[in-house]
User: What shape does this take?
Amino acid sequence: MSSVKIVNPQLICEDCLREEIRYNREHRILPSESAIANRLLNRGPEMKDVYEELHAKLHRHPPALTVFLGLVLSAASLWSPDKIKEARAARDDLANTNRQISKKVAELAELLGRRSELHNTSGFSSDTLYHVCDVIEKASQHNHLFRSYVQEHLDVLRGQFDLKYWPSLSECVQVLASDAENAELTATNPLTEAATEATRSSKADFIKALFAAIEENSAENYGRLPRNFRLTDRTLASLGNCAMDLDPDDLIDDAYIKRFRQRERSRTL
Assistant: This one.
């Protein structure tokens, strides 16, 4: 008499979360992700339908289920509203820093040019660095690799070509000013770009980051998630509510996710 094995999607998914917690604790890593995993475990009744959909769509593609749950933990940990606010602040700080560099370095370039002019016309000299090679050598005096492998070749070049062949210090510095002034800020990974592209924080930032993580880990990009993997609006809403630990009066619903998808489609048209 054959026995029918009963499959419990919630137990399977929660065992994956417990394994993440165990692994992180054992290796003393990612405490914030473990906190998210515990949060999902504590909100088990709300996650029941989520686990059933995940298991139905991913259990035939091992280890896609484990991979996806890991993406949820990572997105919720790295791109919580507070973390996204910090990321946007860091982006603004970087932009402001580049503006300050551009301004201050342009002033320095002007001063260096003025000093060279005074050296040539005033009848006085301040015995300061004037050749770009001098600056490179001074800056590299504690760099063993430079002194062992580069300096000799630089000395040969300097001996072959006199000062007119080299940029002045003010010209070098002006390049730094122009570089900072024209700098374009770009996110270093798709998740950061997706989560911070809006000018203001919202609950949709986590959903954007999760979508980007799904795309990055899709089979179309040589990842472990099946092609055309897509979750229902209700499941995404429940994931967002539980992963972000939203209060009852701040919950998102499937209508919120539907409007979000529509906005994203309109934006890419």
Summary: The chain has twelve helices and no strands. Residues 81-121 form the longest helix (41 residues).
